[in-house]
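Task card 7
Instruction: Convert sequence to C-alpha coordinates.
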Amino acid sequence: MMKKIVLVGALVGALASCTATEQGTAIGAGTGAIIGGAVSNSWGGAAVGAVAGGLAGALIGHSVEHRGYCVYRDRYGRRYEARCPRY
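Output:
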Protein backbone atom coordinates (compact mmCIF):
# COMPACT_ATOMS: atom_id res chain seq x y z
CA MET A 1 0.00 0.00 0.00
CA MET A 2 2.83 2.37 0.85
CA LYS A 3 4.44 1.78 -2.56
CA LYS A 4 1.20 2.79 -4.29
CA ILE A 5 0.98 6.01 -2.28
CA VAL A 6 4.58 6.90 -3.08
CA LEU A 7 4.04 6.10 -6.78
CA VAL A 8 0.89 8.24 -6.99
CA GLY A 9 2.65 11.07 -5.15
CA ALA A 10 5.58 10.93 -7.57
CA LEU A 11 3.26 10.96 -10.59
CA VAL A 12 1.26 13.90 -9.24
CA GLY A 13 4.46 15.79 -8.44
CA ALA A 14 5.86 15.18 -11.92
CA LEU A 15 2.59 16.21 -13.57
CA ALA A 16 2.42 19.43 -11.54
CA SER A 17 5.54 20.77 -13.23
CA CYS A 18 4.14 20.28 -16.75
CA THR A 19 2.45 22.82 -19.00
CA ALA A 20 -1.29 22.66 -19.61
CA THR A 21 -0.72 20.93 -22.95
CA GLU A 22 1.49 18.27 -21.38
CA GLN A 23 -0.93 17.76 -18.50
CA GLY A 24 -3.85 17.42 -20.88
CA THR A 25 -1.94 14.89 -22.97
CA ALA A 26 -1.00 12.77 -19.96
CA ILE A 27 -4.46 12.87 -18.38
CA GLY A 28 -6.17 12.20 -21.72
CA ALA A 29 -3.88 9.30 -22.56
CA GLY A 30 -4.33 7.70 -19.15
CA THR A 31 -8.09 8.11 -19.19
CA GLY A 32 -8.33 6.92 -22.79
CA ALA A 33 -6.28 3.83 -22.01
CA ILE A 34 -8.48 2.94 -19.06
CA ILE A 35 -11.71 3.44 -21.01
CA GLY A 36 -10.39 1.73 -24.15
CA GLY A 37 -9.17 -1.26 -22.17
CA ALA A 38 -12.41 -1.55 -20.21
CA VAL A 39 -14.63 -1.32 -23.29
CA SER A 40 -12.66 -3.69 -25.53
CA ASN A 41 -11.12 -5.87 -22.81
CA SER A 42 -7.84 -5.96 -24.76
CA TRP A 43 -4.44 -4.29 -24.88
CA GLY A 44 -5.12 -3.09 -28.40
CA GLY A 45 -8.22 -1.21 -27.26
CA ALA A 46 -6.23 0.34 -24.44
CA ALA A 47 -3.56 1.48 -26.91
CA VAL A 48 -6.12 3.01 -29.26
CA GLY A 49 -7.83 4.70 -26.32
CA ALA A 50 -4.51 6.08 -25.09
CA VAL A 51 -3.69 7.58 -28.48
CA ALA A 52 -7.15 9.07 -28.96
CA GLY A 53 -7.27 10.39 -25.39
CA GLY A 54 -3.77 11.82 -25.66
CA LEU A 55 -4.64 13.72 -28.83
CA ALA A 56 -7.87 15.06 -27.37
CA GLY A 57 -6.12 16.04 -24.14
CA ALA A 58 -3.34 17.80 -26.02
CA LEU A 59 -5.84 19.83 -28.04
CA ILE A 60 -7.78 20.81 -24.94
CA GLY A 61 -4.60 21.66 -23.03
CA HIS A 62 -3.30 23.75 -25.93
CA SER A 63 -6.54 25.72 -26.11
CA VAL A 64 -6.41 26.40 -22.36
CA GLU A 65 -2.78 27.46 -22.60
CA HIS A 66 -3.46 29.91 -25.45
CA ARG A 67 -6.73 31.38 -24.25
CA GLY A 68 -7.44 34.74 -25.86
CA TYR A 69 -5.35 33.99 -28.96
CA CYS A 70 -6.67 33.48 -32.48
CA VAL A 71 -5.05 31.72 -35.43
CA TYR A 72 -4.53 33.85 -38.52
CA ARG A 73 -2.93 33.38 -41.94
CA ASP A 74 -0.62 35.92 -43.51
CA ARG A 75 -0.64 36.76 -47.21
CA TYR A 76 1.75 33.85 -47.88
CA GLY A 77 -0.58 31.32 -46.25
CA ARG A 78 1.52 30.81 -43.13
CA ARG A 79 -0.35 30.37 -39.87
CA TYR A 80 0.43 32.48 -36.80
CA GLU A 81 -1.18 33.21 -33.45
CA ALA A 82 -1.98 36.66 -32.11
CA ARG A 83 -4.33 38.15 -29.57
CA CYS A 84 -7.96 38.06 -30.64
CA PRO A 85 -9.55 41.45 -31.32
CA ARG A 86 -11.76 42.82 -28.57
CA TYR A 87 -15.12 44.11 -29.66
